[in-house]
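Section 3.1 - Work completed
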Amino acid sequence: MTPREAAHYRVLRLIGEQPEISQRELARSLGVSLGNLNDVDWDLGRLWGTEAAGALRATIRRERCACKAAEAATTDRD
């Protein structure tokens, strides 16, 4: 099983176990939550610059996720 397939399986398993799970709860369960937009006054740029966002980008780079969405998401922007 590829890492991508394993990730898909993990998401599907969580949804199967908890069909009522929210996107926010799913992100937290998977460890991919960047935080709360309310905490940065709905400023996506500030959210992107948080430590949590940087840590997630580093994880994606380290695990060499090869999908186009991950490649775009790991690009650091000023």
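Second construct:
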Amino acid sequence: MVIMKDINQNEIKTMFNFCKNNNIVLQLIELIESENCDDDKFSEDYHYNLDSIEKELSEKQFETYVSIVYVFVCELSRI
């Protein structure tokens, strides 16, 4: 699940519960900025920091249900 600010960050807990109840690992993908990227606006508009989510899940010992991946915004434009 690619997390994008003001688009779907409010769906994380719902997706987490769905995955947990169905014994599925939820992969959260955070878009991160790169100095080599020309499109800073995209990152500014859509970056959602997952640190608080990661901390919350860790405190509740739910790490086995979640994988967090960091993807540079420029890598998406090459796909």
